[in-house]
Amino acid sequence: MEWTIEKIRLDLKYTWKISRNASTFKENFIVRCKGEGFEGMGEVAPNIRYNETPDLIALAFASIKNDLGQCIISTEAIESFINTSNIPNSLKFGIESAFVHWHCKKYKITLQQFLGIEKPKFVASCYTMPIMDPSLIKDFYEEHHLNRFNFIKLKVNDVAAIDMLKEIGKLGNHPIMIDANEAWKDVDVLINFLPKLMAFPVEFIEQPMPSAFTEEYVHLKKNCHLPIMGDESVINNPDFDILEKQFDGVNMKLMKAGSYLNGVKILKEANKRGMKTMIGCMVETTLGIKGAWDLCALAQYADLDGCLIVENEPFHLLNEKDGNFFEV
Fold it and tell me: Of 234, 178, 179, which is closest to residue 211 (Cα–Cα)?
């Protein structure tokens, strides 16, 4: 097998601002494996929240490239490699998905057949609005035709959340997912804030405090009238005995899970425990988003809009119409 990696620059249609940072472009990677006349590709979308940088991804791939070429000859070998390698989770997924896509091409099977899951029939995604001055929300909503989406996800911080909710509420009757990206640092302040949300059609609040706030989340869940969705707290080896005491649901992202098989495992465990399930994404091309789409039969919610904010999306593996994603 021949393995290569290529860095790509994704220019964004607008400034992507969340509670901890803002960006106008993203640097991702495409991993390729070739052999026996077939090629598989996987995407790596590093996230600084998990101490992943483009430089670190490049160095990590260089450190294991020779091992990849020598030992990865089967799906069992790739899973063993992923489980034992000390490399970033997003790189693990890029490598594993490239090999799995190669394997599926070689044996003429679908990804769902390989994973033993159903193919999604109808995938309605939310659209995520970045943090912005509330006075800009109406123009942003209309410019991007957001009335076509059933759900709106609103990135917020602990300062402008209510004003943003008031503005989005004037534009439609969308159920709203609030994504705080760990913005609140005091659980009692957060609990006192939550009653203000009762005036709005909030579906859930996602990761309002840092993932390290283990006991604070247990306390929050007992004092919150809204479902709480875990995101940054759900990485590649989540402890569900703890998670179900903290959250009502989980947002599984393949770039955090590190592999298709582990992503499926996380979703199935959450479903088994009666927790809400969501499949999310980073800022990615449709190569990565298509991988998330392929697992959507296992989830109640989908957040697949990471490719829609990319100006120069190169693969075009999915189409979106009326807020629904489907294969090209």
Answer: 234
User: For residue 173, what pLDDT is reported?
Assistant: 85
Amino acid at 97: S
The DSSP element (H or E) to which 324 belongs, if any, is: strand 324-327
In this structure, the strands spanning 249-252 and 228-230 are parallel
What gap in Å lies between CA 38 and CA 286, rounded to an integer?
20
Domain boundaries, the chain: 2-114, 117-327
- Nearest by Cα to 280 from 327, 214, 233: 233
* Token pair 């995520």: residue: 128
Q: How far is CA 114 from CA 74, 176, 208, in A?
A: 13, 35, 36
- Rounded to whole angstroms, the Cα distance separating 213 from 230 reads 12
- CATH no., domain 117-327: 3.20.20.120
Say yes or no to pLDDT of 243 above 90: yes
Q: How confident is the model at residue 66 (pLDDT cuts 50, 70, 90)?
A: confident
The fourth-level CATH superfamily of domain 2-114 is Enolase-like, N-terminal domain (3.30.390.10)
**Amino acid identity, residue 172?**
G
Question: Hey, do 2-114 and 117-327 end up sharing a CATH topology, with the first three levels equal?
Answer: no
- Nearest alpha carbon to residue 230 among 250, 215, 214, 212: 250
Is 97:130 a contact under the CB 8 Å cutoff? no
CA distances from residue 247 to 19, 195, 215, 296 in whole angstroms, order as listed: 20, 18, 12, 20
Structure pTM?
0.96
